[in-house]
Amino acid sequence: MALIVQKYGGTSVGDIDRMREVADHVARTRRHGNDVVVVVSAMGKETDELIRLAGEVSHTPPGREMDMLITAGERKAMALLTMALADVGLAAVSLTGSQAGFMTDATHQNAKILEVRADRIREALSAGTVPVVGGAQGMATETRDVTFLGRGGSDTTAVAIAAVLKADVCEIYTDVTGMFTADPRLVPGARRMARMSFDEMLEMTATGCPKPAMRAVEFARNHGVALHVRSAFTWESGTWVKDEEEGAMEQAIISAVTHDTSEAKVTVTRVPDRPGIAARLFRALADRDVNVDMIVQNTSVQGTTDISFTVPRRELRAGLEVANSLAPEIGAGEVSADEDVARVSLIGAGMKTNPGVAATMFETLAANGVNIEMISTSAIGISCVVRAGEVERAVQALHDVFELGETTVEAGR
Ligand code: ASP
Ligand code: MG
């Protein structure tokens, strides 16, 4: 008998029929003798809708009220799901984030978990009841206000509960059947990976793979929580990520190709090439909470250099404001923005020890007429910024060249 945390995403509980299917699955898991904690996200696109409403009623909605509003989405979903569980004869109890013991800091819309006092979850479990916890929410210790953990925060809720309860696995139910060698919408031959390492999953989520939420993967790795990313539509076994899989996974050099079309590129020209100038620019960006990703600085010509960096497109305006106001102060030239970029990345634990991966990547892009505008590398990844219109072609070509679709699928567990 195992203790299983099951997190259901928005599409998994998108309507009442889906809620019933989820309830059946929870019941099935219980019948197999397991204890289950359910974490639920808001139904369908409800979170987006609530954010839209707030924008209609106010230009600057107070953070406290935003969190009160957004967490209502999960609260509605958890109550309905608990009713569906009662309907299939399961004792269940819904719990808000604060009832479930999620103590956070007071950073509205991006609250950090400080502690999980999981007494009520434990009590429910020992009474044979299924706790159904609202995802992505908590209560600030100082202010006692309701807090929202941020977009994708329900994954973090689930992983945190799994960590605190030392659950056997945290199952992340979503609308895809696991982690793929490339986005199956772009690459029909993309293959589901039966297992992968935390490092590779982190690198995938950092380079554009939308699920699971990167913060949750990081949390799972730091606390040794086994993850199983799987479908709430087919219920088949998906992709496992476990501590002991580190390095011992599929012995491929390259595991996946990811892409990201959510970033934009900013270029500041003729930046004086002196100590402290780049520091001022990037400190100012950080102070405005602009998340800079890739940075490229050219060799200097006559004492100045061009600096380009990428930022999430929704932070582009803030990034431009910072760069524009700082450029004259630091004696730089023009600032320009380019929204027509995308990033394509190769992920693979084996590239550390295998030379030639970058060369093959660049040759493949060249052969397909894709120009590389920026390059960055990590221990287990290489990313290139290319024209947005060319990213599909780049992903398909790289998936082909590295034969990611060829290997046989490992049997699931
Ligand atoms: N419903 C919230 C969102 O969409 C939280 C979550 O699903 O993780 O961001
Ligand atoms: Mg969601």
Written overview of the protein:
This protein has 413 residues and is an alpha/beta fold. The protein folds into 2 domains: 3-175, Carbamate kinase (3-Layer(aba) Sandwich); 247-413, VC0802-like (2-Layer Sandwich), CATH 3.30.2130.10. The chain contains 11 helices and 20 strands. The strands form 4 sheets. It has an 8-stranded mixed sheet, sandwiched between helices. A 4-stranded mixed sheet has the order 5-4-7-8. It has a 4-stranded antiparallel sheet with strand order 13-18-20-19, with helices on both faces. Helix 2 (46-57) packs antiparallel against helix 3. The protein is globular. Residues 408-413 have low confidence and may be disordered.
Short recap of the structure:
This protein is of the alpha/beta class and 413 residues long. The protein has helices at residues 16-31, 46-57, 63-87, 119-126, 153-165, 198-206, 214-223, 277-287, 316-330, 357-367, 391-401; strands at residues 3-8, 35-40, 92-95, 102-104, 113-116, 130-134, 137-140, 146-148, 169-174, 195-196, 227-231, 239-241, 256-260, 263-272, 295-297, 304-312, 335-338, 341-347, 374-378, 381-387.
Summary keywords:
eight-stranded mixed β-sheet; four-stranded mixed β-sheet; Carbamate kinase; binds magnesium ion; binds aspartic acid; single chain; globular; disordered C terminus; 413 residues; VC0802-like; 20 strands; alpha/beta
If helices are DSSP runs of H or I spanning 4 or more residues, what is the number of helices?
A: 11
User: Radius of gyration over alpha carbons?
Assistant: 23 Å
Q: How many beta strands in the DSSP annotation? A: 20
* Largest sheet geometry: 8 strands, mixed
Bound molecules: aspartic acid, magnesium ion
Mean pLDDT over all positions: 94
Euclidean distance between termini CA atoms? 16 Å
**CATH fold-type name of the largest domain:** Carbamate kinase
Strand line-up in the sheet with most strands: 3-6-2-1-9-11-12-10
CATH class of the largest domain: Alpha Beta
Helix residue percentage: 25-40%
- Give the overall form: globular
**Strand-residue proportion:** 15-25%
Give the helix/strand class. alpha/beta
